[in-house]
TrEMBL record:
Protein's name in the database: Cytochrome P450
InterPro entries according to UniProt: Cyt_P450, Cyt_P450_B, Cyt_P450_CS, Cyt_P450_sf
Source species of the chain: Kibdelosporangium banguiense
Source taxon at top rank: Bacteria
Pfam families in the record: p450
Record's keyword terms, sorted: Heme, Iron, Metal-binding, Monooxygenase, Oxidoreductase
Record family assignment: Belongs to the cytochrome P450 family.
Length: 403
């Protein structure tokens, strides 16, 4: 059996709903696969963990970007994504993480939990009548998307009237970080990014004049007053990162969790007993990101799974097959919330562990447990519809009804 372009194959009509048998074959037979873009795709857990922990796998320094990450030099949308915290090496990464972490206070997180519970209750109330009347409701559109939109908007300070316009542009720009993104995709991303960037600049200016209780205000004021502060590009990139990370992956993870409630009814008691365990297993079993949107480059010649990778090569971790590697997770295709998921790669490891992990996990835990408590007889009216997109592998619609 020859190896086609793995990233194209997982989006094929006969594979997209369940790519795991194919990915398992790739992991066992071609664990390091070079995509058409030239990037090396890693499917084994040990190889992906090695990349996430750093070592010889780094982002290029700024003066190396034009040669090693040419798209960033040509396209503003990609350039801004290279300025986010996850795209930096120490000591720059350490500095950015410190600047970000100081605003994620316990007081702010406690307020977000209370707000998230209220938002979940409102969203569930909105779908209750149609579900009780026997209607089919798309829970992706009714729950999975509006919850993270409202939570991240309240945290950041995006006005309600701007949210549909703003979040509607996110998928197009995120297409720029998929391996092998075409020039057409990159041009569209640049166009949408230009509008978002101007919006962010205007929002920060408004918050400087009229402060609110949100992160946009905190960052705008610290940007104006602190000696150690974000540069302009870093500031826009951090806002961008919160916008993108707070929506796309979280919405995908919520829909995956709802899908698992209906597919694994024998495990739903965990949503009463220890909902966090159900959520952690859901995130391992079905990673919202098929492949990392963050590239790394080899600072020296390396070898992974017996395959030599030359210095200066782009490597991408494939999180979905790595999270089902039987070398780490026994019987990996079984949905089992009792298992140890501490080595799941969904949110990264080491210094690049996702700063938004606790926020996303909180949203999933609150919503999934409340959903099952209110609608214990929920079922899918038909199979989920999957969106043909990377790097996030996401359900497009999730038609549900009650038994």
């Amino acid at each position: 059996m020859t190896v086609p372009d793995v990233l194209a194959r997982v989006l094929d009509e006969d594979t997209i709903a369940d790519p795991y048998p194919y990915l398992s074959w790739v992991r066992e037979n071609h664990p390091v696969h070079q995509a058409k873009s030239g990037a090396y795709l890693l499917t084994r857990h040990a190889d992906c963990m090695a990349v996430q922990l750093g070592g010889p796998f780094r982002m290029p320094d700024e003066n190396q970007l034009p040669d090693m990450h040419a798209k960033a030099a040509r396209h503003r949308s990609v350039w801004l994504l290279t300025k986010t915290m996850t795209m930096h090496n120490p000591p720059g990464h350490t500095r950015l993480r410190r600047l970000l972490s100081r605003d994620f206070t316990r007081r702010r997180m406690d307020a977000l939990r209370a707000a998230t519970e209220q938002i979940c209750d409102e969203l569930l109330c909105a779908v209750e009548e149609p579900l009780r009347d026997g209607e089919v409701v798309d829970l992706h559109g009714a729950l999975s998307v509006p919850l993270p939109v409202r939570v991240i908007s309240d945290l950041m300070g995006f006005p309600e009237q701007d949210r549909t316009w703003l979040f509607g542009k996110v998928p197009t720009v995120l297409g720029a970080i998929a391996p092998g993104a075409s020039e057409e995709v990159l041009a569209l991303a640049d166009k949408e990014n230009e509008a978002i960037e101007q919006y962010m600049i205007d929002l920060l200016a408004r918050r400087s004049r009229d402060p609110k209780e949100d992160l946009a205000t905190a960052w705008a004021l610290s940007h104006a007053e602190d000696a150690d502060r974000f540069t302009h590009d870093e500031l826009i990139s951090m806002l961008w990162g919160m916008l993108a990370g707070g929506l796309a992956t979280t919405a995908a993870a919520i829909s995956n969790g709802i899908n698992h409630i209906t597919r694994h009814p024998g495990q739903t008691h965990w949503l009463r007993d220890d909902a966090a365990k159900f959520v952690d297993e859901s995130l391992r079993y079905e990673s919202p990101s098929m492949v990392s949107g963050v590239p790394r480059y080899t600072a020296e010649d390396v070898e992974l799974s017996g395959v030599p990778i030359p210095r200066g090569s782009e490597v991408r971790t494939m999180l979905a097959p790595a999270n089902r590697d039987p070398a780490v997770f026994p019987d990996p295709d079984r949905f089992d919330p009792s298992r140890d998921t501490s080595k799941s790669l969904t949110f990264g490891h080491g210094i690049h562990h996702c700063l938004g992990f606790n926020l996303a996990r909180m949203e999933l835990t609150i919503l999934l447990s409340a959903l099952h408590r209110r609608f214990p007889d929920l079922r899918l009216a038909e199979a989920p519809h999957w969106r043909r997109s990377l790097p996030v592998r996401a359900i497009e619609s999730l038609p549900a009804t009650l038994n």
